[in-house]
Amino acid sequence: MTPRAFEFEGGRIGPKLLMFGAIHGNETCGTIALARLKLELELGLLKLHRGTLTIVPVCNPVAYAAGQRYVRENLNRIFSRAVKPSHPEQDFADRLMDLIDECDVLLDLHSYSRGQGPFITLDYSTEDNTALASAQGIGDWITGWPEIYADAPTLNAGDTTQYANQTGKACVLVECGQHGDPAAIDVAYDCIRRTLSFLDMMDAGAFSGLAAETRVAHLTRCIAHDRPGTFAQPWVNLQPVTAGTPLILYEDGSVLTATEPCIIVMPDPIAAPGTEWLYLAEPA
Q1: Domain contains 204
Q2: Would you say residue 82 has pLDDT above 80?
Q3: Which strand ranges, in their side-by-side order, compose the sheet holding 246-250?
């Protein structure tokens, strides 16, 4: 079992665009949207004007088959070359890195645990990345991921956008909405068509309206699930909290409290021990 890539050629020379779905096996919005695009291209309902499009609807087939985020290791935390891969997800990372090596632009489609509405993670604010992010028509952007993980290599040994940046590729990761929400599929497809139009590879589609403004939140802290406890409230993504608000109630009786006003980012109440539980951010 290996991630299957499908390639389509335009009529003229142009950019090499790569699109990923289901880096995490339970994040299916990108998979469904890319499958729709594939069918429309194969039936001739859509046509590439130029360039090369490569799509990987299911990047982690073992986790996808199991309906879970990952099986052995989080695929989007192991994008570094394994000397000798010891399990399928390391093999998948190597295969996907090979595809990134060959592309010019990467669009990586994800979903998240709790909350409504899409947001963009802009890990590296280069001119090309910022232009690509702006083309998505999504108002909420999150920055600061590389800084958060700089001192936590055990949490993140490499991800798609980090590897793309290291190899000089333009890249944006879109969190399209909550897992299983049909609206997230629409967002994923909208981003696909917007990216193709932005790169002048395909005619513009019937896009949703552009966001009125860009709201940027910069990550300040990653809180790992390092001991038993529960969220003090059913936190949702991009929820603002005031200073002094209890965030996590630990079983040993201690409480993690917000020391200043902040924004909750990507809370995961069922995060596995040792993985990311939630992030804190501030308006940028």
Answers
A1: no
A2: no
A3: 229-231, 246-250, 255-257
